[in-house]
Amino acid sequence: MFEKSFNMPLSTLTIPSHVSKLDFTHSSYDLPIQPGDIPDNITDINLNGVYNQPFQPGSLPPSTRILILGVYNHPLTPGTLPAALEELWLGSDMDSGEQIISGALPSSIKSIGGCYRHPLHPGDLPPNLESLNMDFFEHPILPGVLPASLTSLEFHGYSHAIEPGMLPPNLKTLITKDEFTLQVGALPKTLTSLTLGMYFNQEIMCDVLPTGLLSLDLGGYYNHQLKPNILPNTLTSLTLSIFHNQPIINGSLPQSLRSFSCLNNQQLQEINAPSCFEHCYNLESVTFTNGSRTKEICDLPINDLFFHGRLKSFAFLLYIFHLIYLPKTIEQYANSNIPNLKLNFHEMEGVIRKLDTHHYLIKDLIDNLLLKNHMSFR
């Protein structure tokens, strides 16, 4: 990493042959990079600083595999990027430059991320691209724009409808952060992980989710009741939003579910009937994250009554209640028959395991093991 004051021509430096990375993140470097300035032993170049000089063909050595740009806002034209480049981060200011010229991105690129606000056309993206993460992308995506090789896609700022044919046929992971509409048949059958946007609140109907989905995160504002046959019977992980306060009805959760998480503390109060998880014979982990920062903690459910005695871990995260509530929580845990209790509040942060009626083993965040008597929680 170069010092903050560094702003000298690279030709004046002798870069050792064992060095593989150049990091200009915190430097003042903003001089043109001439062909030959960077030796062929460099594979990783981080220009996420003030650098904003246009590249020439040969400015970057052919050995470059990773390129991170910062305020760079010049057009990317064919021949300027190394032919063996694998990872490209467009930085934060590409919105003020020209769009990517078709054919400018080498076919070797597997991963692209960063800010890009210009329309994308078929052929703009590399044919072998596997991962795409775009901030502030606001243009509709037409069929054929995303290469068929893409398996992971993340959008921030996309608010258009996701229509059939838009997403590539081999996509496995989709993460969105904003409001949009989702049409039946839009999600490819290969999708296994889906994270919906913070503002997504369109009720999910039958046949919208692919039948092979394994993980589903229902965004931030989603507040619709989950009805039977909405969630696929392959789902193993489900996360409900901070605003979700609908009761969980019998039969709405699939038998395949192994992990259940909720960001709304009040949702735990809604789970007051064992029938909520009656069909979840494989459920192993339940987590309640206090997204609303309430100061009260709800009663801990009993494993045998609610979870067929198969639950392995229950977690209360981000709770800010006073330690005077801790003895009650520990007492409930002792009677719950849940093997592990994870707490995250005040001085009690870690995993608790009951050894016998009087002793508990605690593993804190740095893996220290503590043995406590039940009286020490009072």
Protein model, in words:
With 378 residues, the protein is mainly beta. It has a domain at 1-115. Helices cover 6% and strands 21% of the residues. The chain is built from three helices and 18 strands. It has helices spanning 265-270, 303-306, 326-336; strands at residues 21-23, 44-47, 66-69, 87-89, 111-115, 131-135, 152-156, 173-176, 193-195, 215-217, 237-240, 259-262, 285-289, 313-317, 340-345, 348-354, 359-364, 369-373.
Kindly summarize this structure in a few lines:
With 378 residues, this protein is mainly beta. It contains three helices and 18 strands.
Structural class: mainly beta
Largest sheet: 18 strands, mixed
| Mean pLDDT across every amino acid position | 85
Q: What's the N-to-C terminus distance? A: 51 Å
The total strand number stands at: 18
Unreliable stretches, pLDDT < 50, 5 or more residues? none
Number of helices: 3
Which geometry do the CA atoms define? globular
Helix content: under 10%
Strand coverage percent: 15-25%
Can you write the helix and strand succession as a string?
EEEEEEEEEEEEHEHEHEEEE
**Whole-number radius of gyration?**
26 Å
